[in-house]
Amino acid sequence: LPDNPDPTCVADLTLPSGTVEDIAADIGLPGPIVLSGNDLYFTEYLQGGPSYLSRIPKKGGVVERVATAETYAAEIAISNDAVFWGNWDELDQVTPVGSVGRLALADDSTTVALADLGQPHGMAFHAGDLYVTDTVAVELLALRANGATDLLPLPAPSVPYLVAVDDGGIYVAAIEPGFAPNLISVFHLDRDGNGSTIYTLDPAVGNLTSITLDGDWLYLMTDAGIVMRGTRDGGPLKTLAYVQNPITAAVVRDCFVYFTSSRVSGAVARVPVQGGEVQDLANAVKPQGIAVDDDTIYWTSKASTGPLDPPPTTGFLRRRAK
């Protein structure tokens, strides 16, 4: 692929030593996870009950449920001074009962950052602004540092559901209406929503489940188990890996794409950013979120065994050396 050269970094293919450790067990059904300093933040959902934004030291300790939501708590984003999390009612697709909460890291105070949403499905924070996709209202919103909320236009009529942002711009995955199976596009926008479509994906690759940005590259993961790398301007896509299970979350770190692939027999794995052999790092039942720091991989799992409908407290937070 002459127009899409490999990144120049070289991955250390030595498998990490050590074993998988539980940081927290018997928690609610956990979702995404983010790192802030020495703490991990994640969302918990209790079937038939409330949801929580929870915190635990990354070295282990007591789980603190630092905020409560009456509806389903899912997506999560972090800034230098706050954690944001999205809430919606899974059963109500019409009433705008969704919201985005904000937890101040300085004092654990909580406020509603955005209200009257449908389903805040994707969230990303950068340079003072929080970007949120609402899959019911079919909107991409920007909550500015000054408190103003802007509705950003999209290059084509579509349902935005994933968003990633850095200095290079805003990248949005959206479902274009009227196609079966889904036709997924990726938009590249500036801060004000000006931009264009850079990818329209072949339905055979499945639905996008994650967009991750790193350097000159963007990495796309799908529910067909495909890891792809593309360029910021829509250059040729390169398939880095194919696994049997849907990919639920991913992060790029130290020349690897670390990801979770989710089914009853799921895994935590990694592949070099140039492509190559997939290295399985841990078996995991229904893993959902992943975070990586200098020396450790952290992930959430939804169950300890394989039932389709696990009881309300079968969630785990685990780690292993990187």
Task: Please describe what this structure looks like.
The chain is mostly beta strands and 322 residues long. 0% of the residues lie in helices and 57% in strands. It has strands spanning 21-27, 29-36, 39-45, 51-57, 64-69, 72-78, 82-88, 98-104, 110-117, 120-126, 129-134, 139-143, 149-152, 159-166, 169-176, 183-189, 195-200, 208-214, 217-222, 226-231, 238-242, 247-253, 256-261, 266-272, 279-284, 287-292, 296-301, 315-321. The protein has a four-stranded antiparallel beta sheet, with no helix packed on it. The protein starts with 20 loop residues before the first strand and ends with a strand.
Give the tags:
322 residues, mainly beta, 28 strands
Describe the structure concisely for a colleague.
The protein is mainly β and 322 residues long. It has strands at 21-27, 29-36, 39-45, 51-57, 64-69, 72-78, 82-88, 98-104, 110-117, 120-126, 129-134, 139-143, 149-152, 159-166, 169-176, 183-189, 195-200, 208-214, 217-222, 226-231, 238-242, 247-253, 256-261, 266-272, 279-284, 287-292, 296-301, 315-321.
